[in-house]
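Worked Example 4.2. Consider the chain below.
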Amino acid sequence: MGNGALFSTRIRTPGATAGRCCNVSTPVGIASAVRQASSFSRTIASRTQHLRPGIKSQHIATETAQRRALQTSRILREAQAAKNTPDKKAVSRQREHTEHDEEDENEGFGRTEKAAQASQLNLSARLSKEGDKGGSGKGEIWRLLKIAAPEWKTLGWAFLFLLISSGVTMSVPFSIGRILDVASKPPEENATFMGLSMTTFYIAFATLLATGACANYGRIIILRIVGERIVTKLRSQLFRRTFIQNAEFFDANRVGDLISRLGSDTIIVGKSITQNVSDGLRSLVSAVAGFTLMGYMSVKLTGILLVAAPPVAIGAFFYGRAIRNLSRRIQKNLGNLTKIAEERLGNVRTSQAFVGELQEVHRYNNQTRKIFYLGRKEALISAVFFSASGLAGNMTFLALLYVGSGMVHSGAISVGDLTSFLMYTAYAGSSLFGLSSFYSELMKGVGAATRLFELQDRNPTISPTRGDMVTSARGNIEFKNVGFAYPTRPAVNIFEDLTFTIPQGSNVAIVAPSGAGKSTVASLLMRFYNPTSGSILINGKDINTMNAKQLRRRIGYVGQEPVLFSGTIGQNIAYGKPQATRQQILAAARQANCQFISDFVSSRRTSHFLRPLANICTARRS
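Applying the procedure from the previous section yields the following structure tokens:
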């Protein structure tokens, strides 16, 4: 029944013929009109009783039609009147009800005191999305380069090979210029180059070029190996630093962001301090050697070239800063993208149960579009810088050609010297471009390194290795006036003055509603968190003074949600004791009633026992 059922009632009106009745759903306000119509119909019926049968029946039919018409018209008139003059009380109640509904829609649910407390978050353990913004650029660069300090001997060989290959490369323009000068002389002069015949010089020059190629090969392979080694060490150190953090850290940080720091950020840092530094040093050596030889050939032409250098250098400085900031934002959004993918794929059944596939795809696509927009912005900035610097280089080259051709006509320099100078200009220009690229890539490395340094510098609030040695965890377990609130929500108290004792050897079940803190008791006992007040004692000793690792080794822990790591059945059973023998693992499985393992161990015992869990789960589902 709708809301109209609250304001109407069913009224039965007796009929005038054959004892029949008709049901009329009529508003309560016109019930008196219906009763009057019924009384009138009974009067008409009594008057027709003395008529003859034929006339009587005809008269009854006529009177009945008239009665029904009169009854209907009168009811309609009364209903219309009631409709035109509504009850003031009913109207007032309806107006109040409507206003109340509008207030509820505008205000929504009122915030409870508990919700207000829960909104007071403490996210001091959360890592910043873009790293430490307050660090100086020079300090970050120096610390970034210090990561490669343990590899300085190997990098020294790479630097030596770099000098050899760069020296060979910079000798090419000089040699070409001299070859052109020798070729322009008459054949009868029998010209030589550096005391060598031209045939001997070509053989020596080819040998020199081969030596430069070998040096370049050694430089590249050493830097690649050192780079992979640095990335491996970085990942290992960061994973260790991440794994020793306490529960507060993982409450405040998403796993996807941590995976991004361990993955893409370490690759960028490793590349920036090996291959990128090598390319930067090569560009620096080539630029210094090129400008030195150009100054030796013609000071006038070198002065023209130096006029265009400062604008390019200033542009490179601002370009590097912009690239560093964009790199931080891109790495932040990549971390968010990894977080979204990790959470959604890990809970794909929940999404499918609520038919949220399109919603999750839309959320993932929104994040990829953010990364695309940042990448597009980086592309636009790079396009503006490199096109502008390229135009400046080409115009400078054209000016050098114009001035140099006049100097050749005047006899100030030879054709070979002008050719060598122009080639050195091209080499120096490409070296300046290389230095600009080196600076931008270095800033990318700094942007990624700040995120790594923040994670590397963080110390856990509960050290897993400090504290008194724990030889035994037997004895009474006592909670004395324990107060606790999760570090991320300090205003929401989970416990206040909690006190109880669990005798040694007893079985105790803690029964309470959801969210009352049953799992929190186990977390405090395992020292995942420290109580904010009071103390927890085992055999009379406060567990806050104990070594957390040794304490956890002596407590059997079964989580609220079972977790299976990738690997074999045996590896999962022996997770708490990796050195356990096969017999010990089988005995533990029998005690845990893991009878399904026999389906995979009986035929080929060792191979099936070490069978990966992924294959076993697939076989059990089939």
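Residues 1-73, 602-608, 612-622 have pLDDT under 50 and may be disordered. Strands lie at 8-14, 21-27, 477-484, 495-502, 533-538, 541-542. Compare this with Example 4.1 before moving on.
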